[in-house]
Amino acid sequence: MLKYSLKRLLSAVPTLFLLITFAFFLIRIAPGGPFDSERALPPEIEANLEAKYHLDEALPLQYLRYMWQIAQLDFGPSFHYLDWTVNDLIAQGAPVSFALGGLALLLALAIGVPIGAWAALRQNRVADYTVMSIAMIGISIPNFVMAPLLILLFAITLGWLPAGGWAFTPSRMALPVVTLALPMIAYIARITRGAMIEVLRSSFIRTARAKGMPEKTILFQHALKPALLPVISYLGPAAAAILTGSVVVERIFTIPGIGSYFVQGALNRDYTLVMGVVILYGVLIILFNFLVDLVYAWLDPRIRYDEQEA
Amino acid sequence: MRFLPGLLALLMVACGGDRSEVEEPSAPRLPQPVELELDDQGRPLPSVLADEQVIHRGNGEEPQTLDPHLAEGVPSANILRDLFEGLTTTAPDGRIVPGAAAHWDISRDGLVYTFYLRPEGRWSNGEPVTAEDFVWSWRRVVDPASGAAYGRMLAPVVNAGEIFAGRLPAEELGVTALSPTSFQVRLNDPTPYFLGLLTHPTTYPVHRASLEAYGSAHVRPGNLVSNGAFRLLDWQVRSRIELEKNPHYRAADSVIAERVVLYPFEDENTEFNRFRAGDLHWTYQVPNNQFRWLQRNMTEALVVAPWFGTYFFSFNLNRPPFRDNLPLRQALNLAIDREILTEKVTRFGEIPTYHLIPPGLPDYESPIPEHADWTQDERQAEALRLYRQAGYSEDEPLTVELRYNTSENHRKIAVAVAAMWKDVLGVRTRLINEEFRVFLQNRAQGRVTEVFRAGWIGDYQDAFTFLELFHSEHGRNDAGYDNPRFDRLLEQIAGERIPSRRRNLMAEAERILLADQVVLPVYVYVSKRLVDPRLRGWDNNIMDYHLSQHMYLLRERDPASPLQVTDEN
Amino acid sequence: MSEVTRDAFDRALDTRNVRGRSLYIDAWHRLLKNKAAVTALIVLSLMVVLVIIGPMLSNWDHEIPDWEHYSTPPSLETGHLFGTDALGRDLFVRTLIGGRISLLVGLVATLVSLIIGISYGAVAGFLGGRVDNLMMRFVDGIYAMPFMFFVIVLMVVFGRNIFLIFVAIGAINWLDMARIVRGQTLSLKNKDFVEAARASGATEFHIIRRHIIPNLLGVVIVYVTLTIPQVILVESFLSFLGLGVQEPLTSWGALVNEGAQELETAPWSLLFPACFLAATLFAFNFLGDGLRDALDPKDRF
Fold first, then answer.
1. Which of B186, B209, B438, C131 is deepest in the core (most CB within 10 A)?
2. Cβ contact B72–A93 (<8 Å)
3. B491 interface with A at CB cutoff 8 Å
4. Which GO terms describe its cellular component (chain B) (predicted)?
């Protein structure tokens, strides 16, 4: 296991390298630069600013400089938020996004798995259709519609919850967490349902039934575990995505997470900031995929990584 | 088929749900203030003031920086006007009044200004604000190495241009500290609006010692030393900026607000919702599409006032179809119905305009083109005549690209303008929505643009802030206008000392600009926001400067008091 | 499609194809028993017909404002069945025109991703070994990149043409497909009939095209029905950012975004496009689930 883990982590290095290189050159393709503004800067000042941030150098040289910088875990100054470094901004925003995303993830699991399993047990019956239809609302109504609806209902009309703004308090976090969780609930319910149906038809469950095992035991001790495997592999990338924030939720609820930086960073040509969050996302993806494999091995004894590549 | 009705029912519920919410909007009752009572110095009596003087202001997007010399954009300027104070400052109505300088002398030729700083002027750490602070700060502004976005504001000062260009060291700037409290500025040309420039954050002093100690981190909470009515208490990026009253401020006694909390918003609807929920006293803007709702439910909070800016479109004069084609530019200008645009599209009382410089300047009157007084039918008839003269017709219509940057308002106006051109002239317009930086680059390069969205909010209270944009050498002259006569006029204006002659020269310059139809003016901007009725002390002004130090909160009126009854009768 | 040889092995394949066809016929029958999927299929067909012919039946144009009736509720009197938007444009026509764009965009991007994904996955899986390893490492690298960042940059670069953008979106959305296809190919390539074809001297390309790809049909159909709604949602997200389709054209995403901002003042401008969008996404998702159930051989007893 240890050997496998080390091997996996080592193999992440070239992946990350590829990602950084690709993203670095991709963002530079976009026309315009970080210091463009409607008030045109005098050319001398623009030249000075570019020199200050080494933007006047040849691109390959900038790339090498950047690689050397991040090798020391220094993501550089933000080109847009001039008073902060990218490390500052991520340090301020990441806890917010992690908290929101983590809660949404838990909520989605807590609701998605049971209703998915329940729908599977009632396959093609009214209950199945109803549950899955309701879950499907989560993926059929864009979150930028869902969020204002929730605000209008719970904040403006009923006055139960704040209309936005951020604090680590349940009332401020409730609506954004629900908005984030809704589509995930739908996906998780769907995956659970599909996997559960498959498991319930498999030979070992039929054998167990034939042996006269109580339905409850079959369900919880035998069926649920393998049915969760596809959910787990969905969770890897999904967790990385939800923990790095959502630009829609952050914008509509005024939440200072890091999700907006993927979009705002690109639009402002804040090269360093956008690279910072892209790298963070990449690291999380790799990390979570690795965790998924470990959990897989733990849940499914048939998989042994020491002998085979996943 | 059991499923179909279920699906439909579900959709009905989902869709019907929002509808019922919509038809009965909870009419929000705004808190009502007690009657304002003033003492003999015009200050509110303590008995009418709310116990807690914490003002919550929506403030547009997150400021890029709180360094007054590097900042640009309205949101950061709003905060900086609270944190710092220039030599002059503004009264609630926008008048320029003494700030860090108690008074000043202007030499007879208008070229030398001597400012006498207030001896009681203090930084937020208690140190005195000195003339040397201003000298050091202004040198920093013009030093190209500091990258001051608005360094241009100090261009009238002797040698500023040479220093920008790197041909002279910053020490050569025409500023001197005659004594710790007298600061002298020498100008190249008499600049009648110079005192107005001094309210701009770029001219504010910064605290040298903390800048040298902390570098670019000097504006963080705990590090920032400022000389204004407030000091920085806390800054949570993209969440809130909190200011507290600066006890060392020279006029701390007259500042009523104890704290000011400024919230950045990336979405105007969010800000609007927060105001409705009672979280804000003051918003940065109002979503355009909420006009009807506001009219019905919140007229008392809606404040709309003319602003010192014009929304216009600009023609690229260096490419076909507009190059050397004055009749075509005129035709497009005459074909649009500005009344419809302002009444049905923008809807907040924007003022239709046929010229460039917004009204409201105390010493300037724009030349009004003849067609401003025509009926729309007359304008359209003339537009059609000119369109044909330019060589187009229904059979050979003009195809033109109209460019704008991503924004709900720009989108609506562009769609409406294109529809009007089509309707009146048969022009085929391709609308091109570009992301902001792509748009700016395309505009500046002028290689693909034809007609594009433009607009300008004056940087200082003078017509020149608009006219200078069209100098052939100006960095934002994206129309590519190059008229030697116009350039010469601008140079004359800069050197002119006699106000009436200067005024005439500026009017002549604007007249030429309009006659050449470089731009297609649409409307005069209005500032629009929601303000809690309890918040007082501010006033409308065309620069839209609203310093928190003038503001205060009135006590909320007891709903059971008889006042309200008489009010409602 | 130049056929070179039709030897015994290809005939063997033909018999397999007959078997394959009957497999799809079985699946089709299973699908017809799934009421949700059948309903979804009907809804989608109606939707397609409606967005194609609907705008032709209306008196209104999708781009000309009716200044007499801007932002008016649905009414038979004015002739605006779904009301008008803030500029007085007829929402019935705009909703249908928007549907054309949304569906088209979903289809284009999905097809592009399909083509790239299948070719890439099949090649990687078929060649195997070091090439496969390298190719999949490349996929991993791109997979670790946030999709939205990708889309935004492409949006900024290709901002002027919505179809270019969706070709681009398709061009980065192929990763899942590539992985699935590679897996399937790996498991298929050692099967007897492939071995047989190889022994007969068929080229690798020929084998991929004739033997591997047809076997992937089931996976592909499911993938397509589940990817189209995802792409439609991506487009709506871009519209939320204001980077979507160019005026005067529109899409459901753009309409829903405009509507969401006028939730209280003009609910109809959200209601109709949102219902169309939701119904379509619903239908695609149910159809996809139904197809997966129907095509999954494990389902058969």
1. B438
2. no
3. no
4. ATP-binding cassette (ABC) transporter complex; outer membrane-bounded periplasmic space
Q: Could you please report the per-residue DSSP string of B482-528? A: --HHHHHHHHHHHH---HHHHHHHHHHHHHHHHHTT-EEEEEEEEEE
Closest chain C C-alpha to B19 CA, distance in angstroms: 6
Q: What is the pLDDT of residue B165?
A: 86
What's the predicted TM-score (pTM) here?
Answer: 0.87
Same domain, B324 and B454: yes
Number of domains in chain A: 1
Q: What is the pLDDT of residue B333?
A: 96
CATH number at residue A171: 1.10.3720.10
Domain containing B422 — which CATH number? 3.10.105.10
| pLDDT score, position C249 | 86
A230: Cα separation from own chain's centroid:
17
From CA C103, how far away is CA A153, in angstroms rounded?
31
Residue with tokens 């505009």: B443
**Strands of the B175-179 sheet, one edge to the other:** B101-106, B112-117, B182-186, B175-179
Are B152 and A38 inside 8 Å of each other by CB?
A: no
Which of A144, A262, A285 comes nearest C149 by C-beta?
A262
pLDDT tens digit string along B454-482? 999 998 889 999 999 999 988 889 999 99
Q: What is the ipTM of this complex?
A: 0.87
Average pLDDT over residues C54-61: 80
Contact of C63 with chain B, judged by CB distance below 8 Å, is answered with yes
On average, the pLDDT of chain C sits at 79
Measure in Å the smallest separation between the Cα of B220 and chain A Cα atoms.
8
Contact assignment for B22 to C264 by CB distance below 8 Å:
yes
Residue of A nearest to C297 (CA): A198
Measuring CA to CA, which residue among B428, B435, B504 is closest to residue B463?
Answer: B504
- Chain B, window 189-228: residues with a beta carbon less than 8 angstroms from a chain A beta carbon: 216-217, 219-220
Measured distance CA(A291)–CA(A285) in Å, rounded: 10
What integer pLDDT is reported at residue B128 of this predicted model?
Answer: 96
Write out residues in chain A with pLDDT < 50, as ranges: 306-310
Look up residue C106 and give its two tokens: 């979903």
- In which band, very low, low, confident or very high, does the pLDDT at C296 lie, cut at 50, 70 and 90? low
Q: What gap in Å lies between CA C272 and CA B15, rounded to an integer?
A: 8
Q: Which CATH number do you get for residue B162? A: 3.90.76.10
The answer to whether the CB atoms of C149 and A23 lie below 8 A apart is yes
* Domain span holding position A221: 109-250+291-309
Question: What structural domains and CATH numbers belong to chain C?
Answer: 19-299 (1.10.3720.10)
Question: Both tokens of residue B410?
Answer: 């720009």
Q: Cβ–Cβ of A254/B165 closer than 8 Å? A: no
pLDDT tens for C166-212 read: 777 787 778 888 888 888 777 777 777 777 777 777 777 777 677 66
CA proximity to A276, closest of A66, A97, A52: A66
Which chain A residues contact residue C285 at CB under 8 A?
Answer: 136, 139-140, 190
A22: in domain: no
Who among A27, A132, A198 is closest to C298 (CB)?
A198
DSSP annotation string for C87-118: T--BHHHHHHHHHHHHHHHHHHHHHHHHHHHH
Chain A residue whose CA is closest to B440 = A38
**Averaged over B147-165, what is the pLDDT?**
89
Secondary-structure breakdown of chain C: helix, strand, coil percentages, each rounded to the nearest 5 = 75, 0, 25
User: What is the helix (H) or strand (E) element at residue B364, kind and residue range?
Assistant: none
Smallest Cβ–Cβ distance between A142 and the set C152, C233, C296 belongs to: C233
pLDDT, residue B8, reads 41
Nearest-Cα distance to chain B for C235, in Å, is 16
Confidence of residue B416 (pLDDT cuts 50, 70, 90): very high
